[in-house]
Amino acid sequence: MLLPFIWMVWASVQTPTYTATLTTPFSDWHWQNYLTAWQAAPFGRYYLNSIIVALATTTGQLVTSILAAFAFTHLRFYGRRILFNALLVTMMVPGELLLIPNFKTLSALHWVDHYAALIIPWTASVFMMFTLHQAFAAQPRTTYYAARLDGASDWQYLWRLLVPMNRTVITAVGILQLISTWNAFMWPLIMTNTDRLRTLPLGLLTFSSDIGTNYPLLMASTVLVIAPLIIIYLFVQKNLILGISQVKWHEKSH
Amino acid sequence: MLNSRPTVRSTLKALLYIAPLLVISLAFTFWPLLEAFAMGFYRHYNFYLNQIGSLSLANFQFLWHDAAFQLALRNTLIFIIGVVPVSIGLALLLALSLHHARHFAKLLQTIYFLPLVTSSVAIAIVWRWLFSAEHGGLNGWLAIINRTPVDWLNDPRYSLLALIIVCIWHSLGLNIILLLASLQQIDRRYYLAAQLDGANSWQQFTNVTWPLLTPMILLVSINAVIVNLKVFDQVYALFNGSAGPANADLTLMYYLYQKFYVEDQPTIAAACGIVLFGITVGLTLGTLWVLRRHHYPQRGWSPS
Amino acid sequence: MEVNLKHLNLTYPGQQPLFQNLTCTLADGELVALVGPSGSGKTTLLNVLAGILTPDAGQVVFDGTDVTRATLQRRNIGMVFQDYALYPHLSVLDNIAFPLKMAHVKKRLRYQRARQLAELVAITPQLAKYPAQLSGGQQQRVALARALIKQPAVLLLDEPLSNLDANLRVALRTMIRRIQRQTHVTTVFVTHDQNDALQIADRIIVLNHGKIQQMATTTELYQRPQNQFVAQFIGQPRINLIPMTAVRPYFAVQLAPTLLANAVTVGIRPEALESATTTATTLAQLPVRLVAQWSVGKEQLTTVQFAQTTLISTAVPATTQPLTTTLAVRANGCYFFDAEGNRLEMGVPHA
Amino acid sequence: MEVNLKHLNLTYPGQQPLFQNLTCTLADGELVALVGPSGSGKTTLLNVLAGILTPDAGQVVFDGTDVTRATLQRRNIGMVFQDYALYPHLSVLDNIAFPLKMAHVKKRLRYQRARQLAELVAITPQLAKYPAQLSGGQQQRVALARALIKQPAVLLLDEPLSNLDANLRVALRTMIRRIQRQTHVTTVFVTHDQNDALQIADRIIVLNHGKIQQMATTTELYQRPQNQFVAQFIGQPRINLIPMTAVRPYFAVQLAPTLLANAVTVGIRPEALESATTTATTLAQLPVRLVAQWSVGKEQLTTVQFAQTTLISTAVPATTQPLTTTLAVRANGCYFFDAEGNRLEMGVPHA
Amino acid sequence: GCGQQRTSQSTRVTVTFWHGMTGHNKTVLQGLVQDFNRSQSTYRVVANGQGTFSNLQQKIMTAAKSKTLPTIAQTSYTNVPNYVKGGLIAPFNTDLSAKELAGIQPAFLKAGQYQGKQYALPFSKSVRIMYYNQRLLKQLNLKVPTTWKAVQHVGQVAQQHGLTGLALDRAYLGELNDLAHAAGQPLVTTNLKVNAAAPQTVDAVQPLAHMLKTGTAKTAGADNYGNVRFLKGRTVLYCGSSAALGLIQASAPKNFQWGTTQTPSYQGQRANCVAGNDLVRFKTGTKAQRQGGAAFIKYLLQNRQTIRWATQTGYLPVTTAAATTASYQRYLKKHPKFKAAASELKTSYTDPAFLGYSQYLTALQTTADDLAVKHVAAATTLNKLQQTTETIIKTNQN
Ligand SMILES: Nc1ncnc2c1ncn2[C@@H]1O[C@H](COP(=O)(O)OP(=O)(O)OP(=O)(O)O)[C@@H](O)[C@H]1O
Ligand SMILES: Nc1ncnc2c1ncn2[C@@H]1O[C@H](COP(=O)(O)OP(=O)(O)OP(=O)(O)O)[C@@H](O)[C@H]1O
Ligand SMILES: [Mg+2]
Ligand SMILES: [Mg+2]
């Protein structure tokens, strides 16, 4: 599992010769690759953009998905099934086809080259909604009724009880979507024209061209790109495990 | 509540909750989808001037006869069959062992997580190296079991397999995380009860884990089918912007991309998109059907 | 709050109808015990009252207002669920304080109230724990405290004490009764423990198969059961049932002709089957054969064989007397039921 | 199967120690009732027996074999969980048949067995339903049937009847007892209902704060409680406790000097507080003031005020007599406890 | 100071320029743009990199659809027919004098002409050259081959020593085309006649096909570029783009001795396909902007800029004048490895652009794969190519 990752880090401190041919023996740790890579493109700006876009997008996705999943699981309304299936179907659309029509829409809205274009279209994730739907559907009913009887509105129940009770799954999909937003390439490229709004993956373009790629620098910058994700992951990892408060039976030993 | 019927009021309220998702989906998926799909029926279409010659099924006829499309279709189906069951089975296995791991559980989890964050370009490069004929790690192992080395990426007989391996590896992390999160939610009491009832590990799996994990397995399977039917990035990255040796890894999505962005044939691409979409819907329904046969009344909410 | 249930119909999907035309009224500030065999529809009835289930037909009326379709929050109901429904991610303290939080009560105040209630249900040492770390009875008490904290208009308790030991149960039911009296909250209390019901309820509803068999005060229910089911359901040990034909020859008094004509079954409470001492209140003298005698706690139980029937008595003192003897049937504790099981009025017996 | 618990220690993480050096033995084929207040560690003890919890120290020995660390499957245990733990995805029939399925019993056979057991627990009409569609009591009965079906070596029942009405409870506990007798399975039966315990148990364990207070037969427990806790815990209504100092002047008999020296509290069971008729067995005559009298079912309850203490009696007949009277304390039902709460032997009282 | 500059900037006409340059080349280009902006005060060119060329292509397509194209963009002249059909681009004829145009290398210039108008002007141009491993040649006792025959020989000798003779890119379309051209039968002629199946073409492709079949020549496959194989030091020759010179120089191990030469000749004929990218000007934007675009391109065509571009990136100088300047010659002296490319200019040609060209390229790649991967007989696959290409040309004409 880890091999590619290790190789990536390893290659990031090599010379182009090494990575091009893989034959010359290991020479030295070229840590300066990181500095070179960092300076080769406005990575500071890219970082800022990536952070803004990824956080805004993921937050937006979480909010819209949580709301919708709640409605689909906890509310009764006309057209529930049809709407749900229709949304499900959108997961199956080949995204590449939508790029151009979407660009037209966004440029009509004058959103091209604004954060809005990078964020808003992605704040709806049917995959996330579907995942949360499955999780919310498994919640015991009585908790909902108890909360409603305790005076909680649907809204309060959703945010004060349902969401914390499903922390694990929400964290899991949250981080998955964060990753995919963070690594998004085509969309930010098409939707932005200048470096002002570009995100980290576009920075990686600096090291590849039509005639070849500078692998060590590419790898070094890739490490720079994904480092924040790993840090975030380590931060939320504890949320991926049910807390003692929710484990009904935890064995003492064995 | 529990048995209340939908009313206009409740519908309005629900729509309010769904509105954000719905509006964005309508604007950025449904609407462009119509536009893109409509293109599949245009003939003599000037893409830039948006002049439509006529409406016809000519694009589909073209696809029907196009050898490259047939190849792409075949490859995609083989690919799906190769990837989906294995990747989900493997993910389930690993998720289970992670779930039961007492030591290093966090570390192991992180290990499975890392491929997820590693960008697909980097992954492709690394795999290219692993697959490379001369120094490839894979061929090293083949050598150990006394097999002739294989030029994985340049031999049309193996390159699809290579792609399958990469995609399985790449999708593992996502599936593991989702399955793991779902495994956590299974009440431990059911396992205790089953153990007391004499169930061995396998019986616990088939009788408790599997049925209670079905909703998540369903989700993961559907997602896997959808994502893998649309496989493109991995091909593009692994084969450095080509569809493998002699198009051996040409997938439907790659075909679509090629027609759309490289060969200036957007109408054919759109037609291909429609076909791909149809296949996805079909396979998804199939998956649903297979996995949803056992439906039981839950303490929770009736799933749609 | 006066609560009216009017002509309720309810059928679970794919099942036989459960409630058919169910009607009853709970007076304002009344504590009603709801008893009935397992599966008789008690929880369902509470759910209808709470608004969790909407009846297929009929109305739920609170103080004259039809709330059949009102949302849950608007009904201001406190409820203890049969399975507690505690919030797993909140500590005991937060669980109890949750209703007040929803009512936007200040943190300090609501924790103070929560602590008071925790004290009342004797859960104080567990305040910092989470539901998963509690024993069954502790969870139940948390649920009780949570239901009580917000001073609801209607209190619905679904077997709130089933997992508690006798002493605690007595203490808590007394506490519930006290609070209920103080706050004058209309309360429905589902219980399987007749003592609970008999001790604290103003009135008792006996439910069977979704039908209200009788709704009456404690004493009336015990002394004047409407039908055979109620007579059999209330009272421990169970009432003895004997076919009329078997007992008829042994009657010491003359029964009303209508009674004789219609009575099919005779019910004799165990304490009404006494060692034979003919008094004015003796209805009959039954020749029986002693089968067994044993004591449970302070109770002396005796089983005797009468004709084909085994009877149980709690009024026979420990004895080493002959195995065959005669037992007297006390009028007060003897009922007659017709073929449908309805109780027949005995009228004044003639000696 | 003889079951030994040897020097068990157990502490929940972050809590006070629960079991400390807990030791006891269940004889082969014995039905032991485990009673104790809520939170006393009953469920925990069952979990240790089942292997769900591993003690921090000590051994669990089944028929001489140390199974402390044996897996759950190997112990061949039938268990009813306090919260049932039915498989939500299996129908009632499949839930009951599950243990047999695990034992690879043929489908036809296991369904046949399951149906038999369903019949026994009166759940037959619900066989096709899923747990979520059952009432609380129905779920409990399914859990019971599931525990019984596989003829385990040890049967652990955690309040298996708590959600059932009195009649069904009596029927089922009799059924359990019968099956237990037939199959000779060592059984631990947690219950809050003293009748359950008193009626069917061979012996009763009284647990409090993780400590075994007494393990004895029904009669012994009631008649010779080891300590004040047990005396207070067993018996409904509760035993009356009076400070020795208050009663001392009223003794009609001479008490042993050691008793007098050590006794701090006197316990008088409600049925031992009778309308004054001096007999040989009367220990003391207490002047009391009548407070209230009421009847619950067949029971006549009387509360009286004696000095600072309110006493309850079940042995005073309904009366309109003067409000102050004298009640006799029957020797059989009167206990003396020392400062630690241990019961003191009375010895033969001197008239 | 500051304020003044802002006013002067705001009065300037902004010319947007999308390009596909990355890394070092991008920096050089930015320098040129900056100098242009400093050199005058009417226009301000804003250059934005849009990723690699395929990314750029996609961006242009997308922007065209919503009419948000830049003023000028880097693209391949082969897109010209398509863009003209879409009404996207404006010719340069009105802005550049005939004299100015005449100064451009003829092969480059001709490429940008379509329907009699100059729609594209050359910018980043390269040709195919041959790289060789000096040490291996010496070891095998061989001379630098100048003909395909000699290359075949090198291949055979190398194979006997367990080496590879010739490395090719995965898309060695240039080599195929060159062979056909040298045989006098361009695959597609200017008047769109297809010669793929012509016997001379088949004959010309034969030696290469044979080398691929016997393994004396190997394509790069998933590595895409043969230089990866070449750099590993077990391959004698590599036919590749002159644009890769810089990269190879940077990646070559210290003790790696190598040189460049012209591509081999076939039957005494040498033809060299020009690759690379051009500049086009879109119709979008104001007239002033379009003029600014032209002005910028003119600026780039000046000797100084042309030479600076060529020497700093390794692309070819696009004007004849620049190529002959003393400073460029000096540069070649100092960097002899660049000589080969420069000398190719004489024999270079460009493929005609036509509607459906990209489809034709796909077909040609299929042929290349057929030969390299599937080892299909040259005649067979070229026949197929003939048919496909004819269909493509026909369907795109109506
Ligand atoms: N997982 C846990 N973590 C911490 N404390 C626990 C945990 N489980 C139980 N306890 C505590 O241990 C004590 C004994 O619990 P146990 O469940 O054995 O009680 P019990 O006798 O079964 O009570 P009940 O009659 O209410 O079911 C209780 O005080 C309880 O709060
Ligand atoms: N969701 C459901 N679907 C179908 N039948 C149901 C459902 N819920 C309850 N029932 C049935 O309705 C009947 C009444 O159930 P209810 O829960 O009201 O009983 P109860 O009186 O509370 O019993 P208990 O004392 O055992 O809790 C039962 O026979 C039960 O099986
Ligand atoms: Mg119930
Ligand atoms: Mg318990």
TrEMBL record, chain A:
<comment type="similarity">
    <text>Belongs to the binding-protein-dependent transport system permease family.</text>
</comment>
<keyword id="KW-1003">Cell membrane</keyword>
<dbReference type="InterPro" id="IPR000515">
    <property type="entry name" value="MetI-like"/>
</dbReference>
<dbReference type="InterPro" id="IPR035906">
    <property type="entry name" value="MetI-like_sf"/>
</dbReference>
<feature type="transmembrane region" description="Helical">
    <location>
        <begin position="169"/>
        <end position="190"/>
    </location>
</feature>
<keyword id="KW-0812">Transmembrane</keyword>
<feature type="domain" description="ABC transmembrane type-1">
    <location>
        <begin position="47"/>
        <end position="236"/>
    </location>
</feature>
<feature type="transmembrane region" description="Helical">
    <location>
        <begin position="215"/>
        <end position="236"/>
    </location>
</feature>
<feature type="transmembrane region" description="Helical">
    <location>
        <begin position="115"/>
        <end position="132"/>
    </location>
</feature>
<dbReference type="Pfam" id="PF00528">
    <property type="entry name" value="BPD_transp_1"/>
</dbReference>
<feature type="transmembrane region" description="Helical">
    <location>
        <begin position="82"/>
        <end position="103"/>
    </location>
</feature>
<feature type="transmembrane region" description="Helical">
    <location>
        <begin position="45"/>
        <end position="70"/>
    </location>
</feature>
<keyword id="KW-0472">Membrane</keyword>
<protein>
    <submittedName>
        <fullName>Carbohydrate ABC transporter permease</fullName>
    </submittedName>
</protein>
<keyword id="KW-1133">Transmembrane helix</keyword>
TrEMBL record, chain B:
<feature type="domain" description="ABC transmembrane type-1">
    <location>
        <begin position="73"/>
        <end position="287"/>
    </location>
</feature>
<dbReference type="InterPro" id="IPR035906">
    <property type="entry name" value="MetI-like_sf"/>
</dbReference>
<feature type="transmembrane region" description="Helical">
    <location>
        <begin position="14"/>
        <end position="34"/>
    </location>
</feature>
<keyword id="KW-0472">Membrane</keyword>
<feature type="transmembrane region" description="Helical">
    <location>
        <begin position="110"/>
        <end position="131"/>
    </location>
</feature>
<feature type="transmembrane region" description="Helical">
    <location>
        <begin position="210"/>
        <end position="229"/>
    </location>
</feature>
<protein>
    <submittedName>
        <fullName>Carbohydrate ABC transporter permease</fullName>
    </submittedName>
</protein>
<comment type="similarity">
    <text>Belongs to the binding-protein-dependent transport system permease family.</text>
</comment>
<dbReference type="InterPro" id="IPR000515">
    <property type="entry name" value="MetI-like"/>
</dbReference>
<dbReference type="InterPro" id="IPR051393">
    <property type="entry name" value="ABC_transporter_permease"/>
</dbReference>
<keyword id="KW-1003">Cell membrane</keyword>
<keyword id="KW-1133">Transmembrane helix</keyword>
<dbReference type="Pfam" id="PF00528">
    <property type="entry name" value="BPD_transp_1"/>
</dbReference>
<keyword id="KW-0813">Transport</keyword>
<feature type="transmembrane region" description="Helical">
    <location>
        <begin position="268"/>
        <end position="291"/>
    </location>
</feature>
UniProtKB/TrEMBL annotation, chains C, D:
<dbReference type="InterPro" id="IPR015853">
    <property type="entry name" value="ABC_transpr_FbpC"/>
</dbReference>
<dbReference type="InterPro" id="IPR008995">
    <property type="entry name" value="Mo/tungstate-bd_C_term_dom"/>
</dbReference>
<feature type="domain" description="ABC transporter">
    <location>
        <begin position="3"/>
        <end position="234"/>
    </location>
</feature>
<dbReference type="InterPro" id="IPR012340">
    <property type="entry name" value="NA-bd_OB-fold"/>
</dbReference>
<keyword id="KW-0472">Membrane</keyword>
<dbReference type="InterPro" id="IPR003439">
    <property type="entry name" value="ABC_transporter-like_ATP-bd"/>
</dbReference>
<dbReference type="Pfam" id="PF00005">
    <property type="entry name" value="ABC_tran"/>
</dbReference>
<dbReference type="InterPro" id="IPR003593">
    <property type="entry name" value="AAA+_ATPase"/>
</dbReference>
<dbReference type="InterPro" id="IPR017871">
    <property type="entry name" value="ABC_transporter-like_CS"/>
</dbReference>
<keyword id="KW-0813">Transport</keyword>
<dbReference type="InterPro" id="IPR047641">
    <property type="entry name" value="ABC_transpr_MalK/UgpC-like"/>
</dbReference>
<dbReference type="InterPro" id="IPR027417">
    <property type="entry name" value="P-loop_NTPase"/>
</dbReference>
<keyword id="KW-0067">ATP-binding</keyword>
<keyword id="KW-0547">Nucleotide-binding</keyword>
<protein>
    <submittedName>
        <fullName>ABC transporter ATP-binding protein</fullName>
    </submittedName>
</protein>
